[in-house]
Amino acid sequence: MTKLIYPTLDLFLYDLREGFGQTAQEIEHNRQQFMQKLPDTLDQTCFIRRDEKSFEPEYVELLDKRIEPLRLPENYPGDGYYYPVRLSDTYGLLLDGSLKETQSDDDLTWLKDLHALLKTQINNQTGTLGQTWLFSAQVPYLPLEQYKALAKQCYEVLVPDAVNTDTYPEHSDFLGGNLFEFWRYSGVATENHHILIVFYPDERAAKKGALFYPGWLRLWMYRHKMMWAYQQSRLLKKRLKEKAIEIQNCNREVSQHSIPPLDLKSLQQTLHTAWEVLPRYTTDLSGLDDQTRTIEINLDNYDKRLNTLRKKAQQEALKLEQFSELVRHKYLRQVQKDHANLSPGLKLLENLIGYIQTMVAIEEEKRERAFQGTIATWGIGLAAGAIVASVSGQFPTDYDAYALTRPLNAFLADYLHLPVKWIVPSMSVILSIGAAIIAGLVTKIFLKTNLTQRRKGAKVQSH
Asked: What CA–CA distances, in Å, run from 2 to 5, 137, 138, 139?
């Protein structure tokens, strides 16, 4: 049986305070969501005043008296507190619970109960960015293998569905004791966890370890921001791949409808679809790039904060870089690769839109020219016909016998049985229509010949 002296369980929880581009209403919603994890008796006026005192402060305690005691059952054999802070654009909460009596590892039900108690203190909610559990206790000297076995026991109590293959256990010396880190990441946020277990050699080391809590608050914030950004990048990638399919469909439709004669209606419909996809694809691609920068910035901050903690512990052997190396060589590279692979889709979409607009404009110009040519052709023809009609209208109309001496006039009178007085007006109509047709055809031939010569001249100049 191993004794665990003054066992303590701490929760480091993080909520997003202000996302990029969020409105004042959304920011207030974020604040209310965080405050729901705090006691109802909290002085909200004081909380808001301290929250809004500075613009993106690096570290601000949100309670005038720093901590708020836990709401514990009467005669509970332990104590604890809330410690909310603001870390720039993030809310952080340290929830501490400890037992006064020494416990044993024979039955870890007490740890399970303490874990459940702390979760009820925040209304069984979780952090929007993530959270870390830290269990610590004073444990007399044991061989390393026994420390590892005890750490695994505690871990399995805190994470009942733990699977060895899904965790990344890492051991490190810390303040003369032993620190174990367990964590798991999956695409489902509710299945992710991060657990630290520390066994101090004595009370002095335990008290010194408590001084690291502000540093842990910052360090784990950077960690969870990176994982949150990576998770957001997976959602963005999924949406971008769906839109990439729409872009390929637009590309196929353009190829199908660009064969003469052009299907303007289909091309315009494709253009409409492309215009709808463009802003959504651009926004998500930009968002993917934002997640890359978020990971890069927080990775750098994580490394710097870890080095600060190492110096404070006077122990270069504090091994918590396994995570940062994984982020650097896997998660960050994956997001960068995704952005590089999906960026050509935006260029293709922009080119498609430009191509369709050009083709539609050219086709409409051709139709406009054809229409204008038709108007010119028949306008000249009608003008010629009008001239002929006006001239023929001056012919004498009272010489019936003279009119019948003309073969065409005689034909109209004999075979169509037109009255003699209609012969001359009918001839005027026939002559005007004939003149209009001949003039129109001559004009059309002239315009076509002129256009052909201009095209040949343009080709010669281009060569």
From this structure: 10, 11, 11, 8
Token digits of residue 8: 């303590």
Contacts 24+ apart (CB under 8 A), 230-238: 230/291, 230/295, 230/327, 230/331, 230/334, 230/335, 231/187, 231/189, 232/287, 232/291, 233/288, 233/291, 233/292, 233/334, 233/335, 233/338, 234/187, 236/284, 236/287, 236/288, 236/291, 237/288, 237/338, 237/342
235 shares a domain with 186: no
Please give the model's pTM, rounded to 2 decimal places.
0.78
Number of structural domains the chain divides into: 3
Q: Look up residue 256 and give its DSSP letter.
A: H
| 278 within 8 A of 350, measured Cβ to Cβ | yes
Examine residue 232 and state whether it is found in any structural domain, yes or no: yes
pLDDT tens, position by position, 392-412: 555 454 445 545 555 655 555
Q: In this structure, is residue 86 part of a structural domain?
A: yes
User: What's the first-to-final CA gap in the chain, in angstroms?
Assistant: 96
**CA 355 to each of CA 277, 351, 361: distance values in angstroms, whole numbers, following the listed order:** 16, 6, 10
Query: Which pLDDT belongs to residue 446?
Result: 63
Residue 417 has pLDDT above 60, yes or no: no
Distance separating alpha carbons of residues 327 and 330, to the nearest angstrom? 5
Peptide bond into 69 cis (omega under 30): no
Secondary structure letter of residue 211 according to DSSP: T
Could you list the residue range(s) of the whole structural domain that residue 419 is in? Answer: 393-462
For residue 176, the SS3 value is coil
Length of the chain: 463
CA separation, residue 424 to residues 196, 265, 365, 383, 414 (Å) = 114, 51, 45, 21, 14
